[in-house]
Specification:
With about 600 residues, the protein is of the alpha/beta class. It is built from 25 helices and 22 strands. The protein has a 9-stranded mixed sheet with strand order 3-1-4-5-8-9-12-11-10, sandwiched between helices. The chain is globular and about 65 Å long.
């Protein structure tokens, strides 16, 4: 802690704090509408989360963007699905309903990897998981249509909509399901982050213009669009698993605004039309969205029901960028947020850190400064920025980092120093993921970046995600080889010793990923014991989530690249056994991995 933060000039001691009331939020009750003098909302947003007014909550960002555009926006979080009381409390909107399953796919939110119901929900007041329905998008759309006949359009958005927008494997029903817009009976779907599509679509509906050519939207058509890539039909995917791989390849390769084509898929007698993605936000637009008037609080209507756990981490955290080009096959961030990094300016980020001083519960601790991958801030591939993402090569995989991607932590280093020196900041942690292989690859700034983290930005332990150590499993995961992990650990240990700190490394590990057998988990256990000199305390069983290559592998039992058969563990007890192998406390005994 600096001398300035110890002395009497510390702004945390003499600051003016703010208290938020209902008028500082978007309205969620008729009483709030009346106080604003509104007789009708232009748009009503419905979400599987309680109304948490934070830049980390997608539906809240949507609401604030629409508010900035001059629209009257209402918010209904976690409506009661057994009555019409909640869904009717704001009346019917003038333009459309915006429907989201919430910040997490509702099935992922409600069930563990072994399909056990989760008792807790970080986005529900009080923490009890009793407010978010399974397949929330479809349930909410049906609820709206039940109580508002012939209503204005239903616009689907959020991660549940985005990742289920074409034929997809659903782990919980163990089958391929139709694009979610068909099951939910929605009218329009905005996919990805979709900020620009949101504005263009809202303006078009308001002005009664045709919106069907707007980039970043999907809709149902009676006729195909032959100018778009023709995906295998839903029925073809049901009949032939290789056709489903073909579909997913085209779905995955057409997510970049610069290089993507539109997609067309036959579903029974109708067609899903997916227009090419909308443009990404530029730096000025990223800054502008960060400046939206978020309260960073739970709306008082919901606060009286209890606290939401997610605010413990997101309230005083800073999102520095969108996107991730790590392309882990089990992760859907690249599909939803995109594989091109979009950053905010350092000045804008520092101003956000200063804003925290106005909150009475701010103690000078920033929980996280980062993004999907914290150390991707501040650099990108020049070729990708001009021509879009490559179809035939990844930025990074189990073999290597692309030679065109010049990793440079220099700008990130400067950002962290500025945040650390910001008035009122006692500690700014990096809690979001870092790619250790990028740190070891950056010969100019990697060591300095890690040193900065060790000295100032770690809270006792740093979490990294090797996920596995067996090369054939890593290749199926799209993760880097174990050599960079060993190099990183040596660097990390050396820096902690130099700084006289006793900070640990903890590791995210996955059991039962496609291609992984029990012998692979025994070898993983041996590696963690002998090479990393630790006993893992936790590992997670793989969950096949929509929008990921790993889910494709799980369903088809094939390597999507080679189309060769791979082992896939589907027995729940044996999945748990794989997990137990690596977390067991007894010392490793040789001979398991023969």
């Amino acid at each position: 802690m600096s001398r300035r933060n110890k002395d009497k000039s510390n702004p945390l001691k003499n600051r003016k704090t703010v208290t938020f009331t209902e008028k500082d939020f978007l309205p969620t009750t008729r009483k709030e509408m009346d106080a604003l003098g509104w007789t009708q909302c232009d748009i009503i947003l419905v979400s599987g989360d309680a109304y948490i007014d934070s830049p980390y909550i997608g539906i809240s960002t949507v609401g604030r963007i629409l508010e900035r555009l001059g629209y009257k926006v209402g918010m209904i979080g976690q409506p009661d699905i057994k009555s019409g009381d909640d869904i009717k409390r704001l009346g019917e909107p003038r333009l459309y309903w915006g429907v989201s399953g919430g910040s997490v796919d509702s099935m992922v939110s409600n069930y563990t990897a072994t399909k056990k119901f989760r008792n807790s929900d970080d986005y529900t007041p009080g923490g009890k998981n009793d407010k978010r329905p399974d397949r929330a998008l479809s349930v909410y759309c049906n609820l709206i249509r039940q109580h508002f006949k012939n209503t204005v359009p239903l616009v689907l958005g959020g991660i549940e909509a985005s990742l289920r927008r074409v034929t997809h494997y659903d782990y919980w029903q163990n089958k391929l399901k139709k694009p979610v817009i068909f099951d939910a009976k929605g009218d329009i779907l905005i996919y990805g982050m979709g900020e620009i599509a949101l504005e263009q679509l809202t303006r078009a509906i308001d002005e009664d213009r045709d919106w069907r050519d707007i980039r970043g939207v999907c809709y149902i058509s009676k006729e195909p669009n032959y100018e778009y890539i023709q995906l295998p039909s839903h029925q073809e995917c049901l009949d032939d698993k290789e056709k489903y791989i073909d579909l997913f390849d085209d779905f995955y390769d057409n997510n970049d605004p610069i290089s993507a084509n539109g997609l067309c898929q036959r579903v029974d007698s109708r067609y899903l039309i997916q227009n090419p993605p909308c443009d990404y936000l530029n730096q000025a637009e990223m800054d502008a969205n960060a400046n939206l008037p978020f309260t960073r609080e739970l709306h008082p209507y919901y606060a009286k029901m209890g606290k939401v756990k997610c605010l413990e981490t997101i309230k005083f955290s800073i999102m520095t960028h969108h996107g991730c080009w790590g392309e882990c096959n089990f992760c859907a961030i690249g599909v939803h947020q995109g594989r091109t990094i979009r950053t905010r300016t350092e000045d804008n980020i520092v101003e956000e850190a200063k804003e925290f001083n106005k909150y009475k519960d701010y103690k000078g601790i920033i929980a996280d400064v980062g993004g999907p991958t914290a150390n991707m801030y501040g650099y990108e591939c020049d070729k990708k920025l001009k021509k879009g993402t490559c179809d035939d090569i990844r930025c990074v995989d189990a073999q290597r980092l692309c030679k065109v991607m010049h990793v440079n932590h220099g700008r990130n280093l400067n950002l962290l120093k500025r945040v650390r020196e910001t008035e009122g900041v006692r500690k700014a942690f990096i809690a979001s993921g870092v790619r250790y292989d990028l740190i070891t690859a950056d010969k100019q700034h990697g060591y300095s970046y890690l040193k900065e983290m060790v000295k100032h930005h770690i809270s006792g332990q740093l979490k990294v995600a090797p996920e596995h150590t067996q090369q054939h499993v890593l290749e199926l995961m799209g993760k880097p080889g174990k050599e960079s992990l060993v190099e990183f650990k040596k660097m990390y240990d050396k820096l902690n010793k130099e700084e006289n700190k006793n900070q640990f490394l903890t590791y995210y590990l996955i059991a039962a990923h496609p291609g992984c057998e029990e012998k692979d988990m025994h070898e993983l256990k041996r590696f963690t014991t002998d090479e990393l000199q630790m006993n893992p305390e936790q590992a997670q069983v793989f969950t096949p989530t929509p929008g990921t290559y790993s889910a494709v592998m799980y369903y088809t039992e094939m390597d999507p690249k080679t189309r060769k058969k791979i082992f896939v563990e589907k027995d729940t007890k044996r999945k748990e056994k794989q997990k137990k192998i690596v977390v067991q406390k007894e010392c490793f005994k040789t001979g398991f991995a023969s």
